[in-house]
Structure formats: C-alpha cells, structure tokens
Amino acid sequence: MAVQRMLKFVTLGKETPEKRPATLRAEDFHEIYRQFAEQKAAEQASRCSQCGVPYCQAHCPLQNNIPDWLRLTAEGRLQEAYELSQATNTFPEICGRICPQDRLCEGNCVIEQSGHGTVTIGAVEKYLTDLAWENGWVAPIKPGAERTESVGIIGAGPGGLAAADVLRRQGVQVTIYDRYDRAGGLLTYGIPGFKLEKPVVMQRIAQLEAAGVQFVLNCNVGVDLSFDAIRGRHDAVLIATGVYKARDIQAPGVGLPGIVKALDYLTVSNKKSFGDEVEAFENGTLNAEGKRVVVIGGGDTAMDCVRTAIRQGATSVKCLYRRDKANMPGSQREVQNAEEEGVDFVWLSAPKGFTGSDSVEGVIVQRMRLGAPDATGRQMPEVIEDADYTEPADLVVQALGFEPEELPKLWGVPELGVTRWGTIKADFRTHATNLPGVYAAGDIVRGASLVVWAIRDGREAAETILSYLAQSASVAAE
User: Fold this and answer.
1) CATH topology of domain 150-243+404-477
2) Does domain 252-401 have CATH number 2.30.33.40?
3) From residue 255, how far is each of 288, 356, 394 by CA, in Å?
4) Where are the beta strands (DSSP E) in 251-325?
5) What is the rounded CA–CA span in Å between residue 440 and residue 26?
6) pTM, 2 dp
7) Is a pLDDT exceeding 80 seen at residue 398?
8) Name one GO molecular function term (predicted).
9) Which residues, other chains included, contact 7 with Cβ-Cβ below 8 Å and sequence gap of 6+?
10) How far apart, in whole angstroms, are the C-alpha atoms of residue 254 and residue 249?
C-alpha cells in the first residue's frame, strides 16, 4: 500500500521552528529561530493540501512553485526541492527569513483559511537553502559563453544583485556601483542580524564576485562618479538605488542631539556586527546602552530599532504609534517578538514635540483616538485634547519610513523622468525609463516596499535588458 505523503493537515498540527528564549536572544544579535530538522521539515511540508489553484503561489511576488517543492521535501527529495525553489527566486534563504509570509504565501494558504493552521512555508524554504549551501548544491555561476556587452547597475541591494545574477548567467559583463563599503544594501546594513545573519548575505555576494561581477564600492554617484560617465561605460544601465531619504517629524525640538534617524542607527549597529570600529557607537551617539529609548513609528523598521535597542542594553524601550495594534503596518509576528523581549508599546500616541537643552530629555506625547475612515477605509487618528504628557527619553529614533532622493538633481540628469512622489518613472512591465538604455527597478520605482518585490523587479529588468542588448546587437550587425 502506498504511503500517504501529503494532505496530512488534518492529523498533523502546524509547527514553527522553535524560538530561542527571549531572555537569551535579547543578549545577542543571532537569529532567533532554530533550524528545522529533516524529519520536522518533511512533516510540515506534508501538511500541504496540494491545491489545484495554489493561492500561496498566486500571492508570492516571485510566483514560487511552492506546492511542488513542499511535496518534494515531504518525499525526502531535498536537492530537487531546493533546485525548484531557486528556479524563480535568486535568494530563497533570504526570503525564507525576512519575507512577511503571514501577509503573502502563508496568509493565503487554503488550510489556514479552513482553520487548520498554515503550512510553514518560509521555514521550509530557509531549511532547504541552508541545507543546499551546506551540501554544495548551490552551483557556481558559470556562463556558457562570455559576451562583450556590459551593464552598469547602480545600487547593490536585492534588486541590483538579483539583476546581476540573471545577467551574469547569460555572460553579460556586470559592474555594480554602491555608496557603501559593503554590498547588500538594506540586507547588509538595514536589517539586524537577529532577522538576517550577515554571512547569509555575504555568501551570495561572494558567489557573484566569483562569477566575475565587479563591485565598485564607496562610490557616491553624482559625487565620486557622474551618472553620464556610468552611461558612457556601459551598453545599458539599471538604477536600483532603493529609497533612503528618511521622513522627518515637524515638531518643536526636533533638531536636538539624541534624536536620530532609524537607518543611521541600524547601519551603525550592523557595522558593529561586522567588527568595525564606529565612532558614533563608541561615543554613545548611536548606542542605546544605559539609555531610555523611544522609537517613533509602527512599521518593520521601527520593530528592528526597538529590538536592537533591547540588545544594546537600553534601560527601557518604548514604541510610540499613532494607531492601535490591529492597524500597525508592521508584521504582527515582529510585534510579538518585540513584546516578548521587553519592548513597551504605547498605542494611540504621537510626538508633539521634544524637551531638552543640550540633548533630548523627553518626548511630548499626545494621546490619539481612531476617528472616521479615510479614502482607503482605514480609520484616521485624531488628537485627544488636553491629554498630553512627557515621556522621558535619552535617545529618540525616528522610524517613519523612507522617501526617494532627488536623483535627477543629485546626479545632474534633469531629463530623467520622475513621478510626483519623486520615484523614477519606469514602465512596470519592462522597467524602462524615458532615457534610452536606462532601466529602473525596486523601491526607487515602487516606493518603500518588500525585498521580495525588489528581487522580482531586478529579475524582470534583467530579462528586458537582455532583449535590449540583443536588439542593439542585431541593429549593429545590419
């Protein structure tokens, strides 16, 4: 009698990888989830209902063939499962760690909707790819033939790296320009190690370097090298800079020392994780140790900041958010992790101003309530009059989201088309801008979004660039 491999969701309950105890994980920057063992990964994969119309796949930006690699995992065909998972995803081990699966694949799992608890897709994806690296299943990138065409990519984040991977496999010469001293963008400097340990990112960058991708680091386009110079060096250019300009608070006292931007704070913390000497950390400017910390914001970046402050030894960490818990834009899973680690969430509250003379001493907090819904149907926060109070603070971190920099002005390319929001105007199918041979992908087109969308955009843009290069070669040959 054949062994039933799948559809076990009725008899097997949902299990996620074990979390390290909060008291222990709050003392370091290691990832908080333990790894699935082979038996447990196979068990959880076997819960998949093998839908005829898989909603998990339909709600994955990369259209990953999730049911099939879950079935292969349940059958113990792990190398095949990995190869199928990476066929549509350049960085499955990264997505398995940081994708908000609760809002994407797992949140749309049919057995979740039927009350049986979702298949733990992200944990299985992470397990498969980590196993692939350990066992040497991750093959080096070896183009079948080298091509003379070259592509310049501005930005070494997930979109740029994904595009480089696709292009290099086709033999195209690729150079990536980035302002930081390490490649990876927000994967390297914006996401803390407890969500994404840095060797996981560095091994992919090393794979690209070994394949011949050239990295020009510490290169601030428009200052160290002009955009026109980059265009002159390459047959096509991809802009994948992301969005780095922090949204600011307009309130009295906002310029006081001790009020810092989230990305500055996270970048310094991540540099320390590499063993770098960072003056702003050593002198206490961007170090939460022994301080009363207030983080303003409710997205995933705010969650990264509060959990980083806990690990740095803050005496207290509070998160102010103007709506309630149910209306937070950040992952509920991350909120739960933060609460377990000792973060105090102050819902329905917003900063009105800041107190202090030589440095910040407190946040003037105004209490809020949810009023009538806006055009999107989301209730708008309203100020409760005469309910203000002051929250003591030695370090205030602003985590209010990101906006695009004024690239046409910074790069001296006023003809580069942008939208009224400042994002680059590019075709959402081809990723072509209004400049010939120039493409754009990721957050610089979408606005601040998810890593998985940047990967998709980078892969799509690379395919369009390959078509453009082929057309250009055909015209030149005539």
Assistant:
1) FAD/NAD(P)-binding domain (3.50.50)
2) no
3) 19, 11, 14
4) 259-261, 292-296, 316-320
5) 39
6) 0.94
7) yes
8) oxidoreductase activity
9) 46, 48, 49, 50
10) 7
